[in-house]
Amino acid sequence: EVLPRELTLVASAGMDWSVKVWSEERPGEPLFCLPCSSFVVAVKWHPKNPNLLLVACEKGVVELWNVLKDRECPLASVRVSSDCGITAVAWKDSGRQALVGLESGAM
Given the DSSP bridges, would you call strands 18-23 and 32-35 parallel, antiparallel or unpaired? Predict the structure, then answer.
């Protein structure tokens, strides 16, 4: 997920339970890593605040990170589902709400 601004940051999700944030100017190594609660399936930058990153974890948890303030613990963490995995996350254009897609097809 590329940051939707003039900044050139890219967030990538991996099977190592982390999100890596990269700079296009320095592609050889990540700028920093965010430790997550389980396998990460999706990430999405906030459409208006370049410090906020939404992270979807396989075990039904969505985490909101403020990468400017804390890179060890999410700003908020919510269990969306205990019996169905998350497949996608998205922000509404206003950035006031987030959408979460589940394996069952529900949002």
Answer: antiparallel
Percent helix, strand and coil across the chain, each to the nearest 5: 0, 45, 55
Give the number of other Cβ atoms within 10 Å of residue 67's Cβ: 19
Closest CA to 7 of 23, 19, 28, 27: 23
Cβ atoms 79, 98 nearer than 8 A: no
- H and E: helices and strands count for the chain: 0, 9
Helix (H, G, I), strand (E, B) or coil at 51: coil
Rounded to whole angstroms, the Cα distance separating 82 from 77 reads: 14
pLDDT in tens, 13-62: 878 899 999 988 887 899 999 998 889 999 999 999 989 999 998 888 99
Alpha-carbon distance of 40 to 18, in angstroms, equals 7
Beta pairing partners, 79: 61
pTM of the model: 0.87
